[in-house]
Design a protein that fits this description.
By secondary structure, the chain is an all-beta fold. Helices cover 2% and strands 48% of the residues.
C-alpha cells in the first residue's frame, strides 16, 4: 500500500479534541471557535452519514481530486464505514462541537487528520480537512458537506456505482459486470459475486474503464439481481445488490 495515497482514504485522522459535546473516542485539549448557536451542530455523529464534496485541495496528485465525494458513516465509537461500506481501519476517532462549529478527528497507524466543519444549516455546511501521514507528508482539502441519518442497517446494499453501457455478443440473453476501483491506496482486492470468487483487482484506474478492460474483474451473469462483495487488507465493501440487464454491461466502482 502506498502510504501517501492514504490522503484519499481518510479525510479525518487524529486524536486531540475537547469541546462542549462529544460523540466518539477520547478528547484532547483544544476546540474550535464558537459559532452561531442558532444553527448548531448535532451533539453526536454516531448513526450519521457525513458526505464531503471536495471543492479545493493542496494541488498534490495524491490528494483526493476536486469534485470527488467522500462518504463516512459513524457506526459506533470504533467503527467507521466509508463509501460502499468499506470499513475504515481507524485506531480511534472523536467528535465535538461548539455552537455551529464541529471537529471530527480520526487517527490510525497510517497517520492523522483533523476536520473542521462549519454548519450553515442543521444538515449542511463547509469543511476543511488537514491530514498528515507517519512519513511526515501533510496535505489538505476543503469544500462542502451534508450530514444525514444512516439507514443502511447492519448489512445494507452498499453504495458502489454502476451504469449499463453498450451491448455484448451474448444476443441479449446474458449481461456482464465489470468491477473496478479508482483508489490507488489499496491493492489485491478480492471480489466475490453471489458468494463465489470472481477475481482479484491488482490495480486502479484514473478514469472509468470499459467493460472487459484488463485490470477489471469482468463476469458474465444472468439478468436480475446479484450480490457483490470485496475485501482487502484493512477494509471491505458490500454486500451490494446490483441489477444486471440482458445485453448490457454494468460498470461497478469500488470507492
Amino acid at each position: 500500500m502506498q502510504l501517501l495515497s492514504i490522503l484519499k482514504k481518510l479525510p479525518a485522522l487524529a486524536c486531540a479534541l475537547a469541546l462542549a459535546a462529544c460523540g466518539g473516542g477520547s478528547s484532547g485539549d483544544a476546540g474550535p471557535t464558537s459559532g452561531n448557536s442558532n444553527v448548531g451542530a448535532p451533539s453526536s455523529v454516531i448513526g450519521k452519514t457525513l458526505v464531503y464534496t471536495v471543492k479545493r485541495n493542496d494541488g498534490s496528485a495524491n490528494t483526493i481530486s476536486v469534485g470527488k465525494n467522500i462518504t463516512y458513516t459513524f457506526i459506533d465509537s470504533k467503527t467507521i464505514y466509508g463509501e460502499g461500506k468499506v470499513n475504515i481501519e481507524s485506531t480511534s476517532w472523536d467528535y465535538a462541537i461548539s455552537g455551529n462549529v464541529a471537529k471530527v478527528n480520526i487517527y490510525s497507524k497510517y497517520g492523522y487528520a483533523n476536520d473542521v466543519l462549519t454548519f450553515t444549516s442543521p444538515t449542511s455546511g463547509t469543511y476543511r480537512s488537514d491530514t498528515g501521514l507517519i512519513t511526515g507528508t501533510k496535505g489538505w482539502h476543503e469544500g462542502t458537506f451534508t450530514v444525514s441519518d444512516y439507514t443502511g442497517g447492519s448489512s445494507g446494499t452498499g453504495t458502489g456505482t454502476g451504469t449499463g453501457t453498450g451491448t455484448d455478443g451474448s444476443q441479449g440473453t446474458t449481461g456482464r459486470i465489470a468491477v473496478w476501483t479508482s483508489r490507488s491506496n489499496v491493492s489485491n482486492i478480492d471480489v466475490q459475486i453471489d458468494n463465489a470468487s470472481a477475481g482479484t483487482l491488482t490495480g486502479y484506474f484514473r478514469s472509468t474503464p470499459s467493460c472487459g478492460d484488463s485490470g477489471t474483474v469482468t463476469k458474465t451473469l444472468s439478468p436480475g439481481t446479484h450480490v457483490v462483495k470485496a475485501t482487502t487488507t484493512g477494509g471491505s465493501w458490500g454486500p451490494s445488490n446490483v441489477t444486471i440487464t440482458a445485453g448490457s454491461c454494468l460498470l461497478f466502482e469500488l470507492k
